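Exercise 7. Given the encoded structure of a 237-residue chain, write a plausible sequence.
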């Protein structure tokens, strides 16, 4: 019996080939382990940590993903797609603009996706001493794989960060749908006028701390998100 799965080989290191049941099981273990390890330690965590968590040899990981870049891209793309689906669900199922935005934030934080956001979606301008726009680095450990943010580009409607040509279409789709959530809430007067799409995504990343105890992590995330939501809301003058 065989099953189909995406493995390394194409432009982004992916192709579809049939996998035996045991190989498919190993692939699922590797992907689950990668989400956990990268979520806890950042995308700088070594492949050996992923293999150890998956309880397979590091050679098994490299057979499925010929380089760490390929594995990182796979995880980042899956999490971006998950966030996009959550944003679309909030848009389609919530009539009230603030309810739609807050639902998206709550769902995204609860899923832990914020710990795996691709760095290119976290473009937030911060003035340094030289007056040059800078952006924060995502949590990472030293490694050969570098996922770095670039200086902010001019923003489009709804303050959506410009997506470079080399960024994948999934990132652009996420920014577009979150931009619609932001615009609706802002137009309704329920969102602060200075809040951008970057700010909303930064809330998701910030409100998903990685703590050793699952119950404490869930409680901390929920509490922090409530505080951040209050900070996003527009208040009558």
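Solution.
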């Amino acid at each position: 019996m065989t099953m189909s799965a995406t493995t390394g080989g194409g432009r982004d290191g992916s192709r579809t080939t049939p996998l035996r049941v045991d190989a498919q099981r190993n692939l699922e273990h590797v992907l689950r382990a990668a989400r956990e390890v990268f979520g806890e330690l950042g995308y700088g965590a070594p492949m050996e940590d992923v293999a150890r968590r998956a309880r397979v040899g590091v050679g098994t990981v490299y057979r499925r993903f010929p380089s760490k870049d390929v594995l990182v891209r796979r995880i980042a793309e899956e999490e971006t797609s998950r966030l996009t689906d959550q944003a679309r669900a909030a848009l389609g199922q919530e009539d009230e603009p603030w309810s739609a935005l807050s639902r998206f934030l709550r769902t995204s934080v609860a899923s832990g996706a914020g710990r795996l956001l691709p760095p290119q979606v976290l473009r937030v301008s911060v003035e340094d001493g030289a007056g040059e726009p800078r952006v924060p680095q995502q949590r990472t450990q030293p490694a050969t794989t570098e996922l770095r943010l670039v200086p902010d580009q001019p923003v489009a409607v709804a303050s959506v960060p410009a997506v470079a040509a080399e960024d994948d279409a999934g990132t652009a789709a996420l920014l577009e749908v979150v931009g619609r959530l932001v615009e609706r809430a802002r137009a309704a007067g329920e969102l602060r006028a200075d809040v951008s799409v970057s700010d909303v995504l930064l809330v998701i990343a910030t409100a998903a701390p990685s703590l050793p105890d699952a119950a404490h992590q869930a409680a901390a995330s929920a509490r922090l998100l409530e505080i951040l939501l209050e900070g996003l809301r527009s208040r009558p003058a």
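Remark. Residues 2-66 form a domain with the Arc Repressor Mutant, subunit A fold (CATH 1.10.10.60). Students should compare their own answers with the one above.
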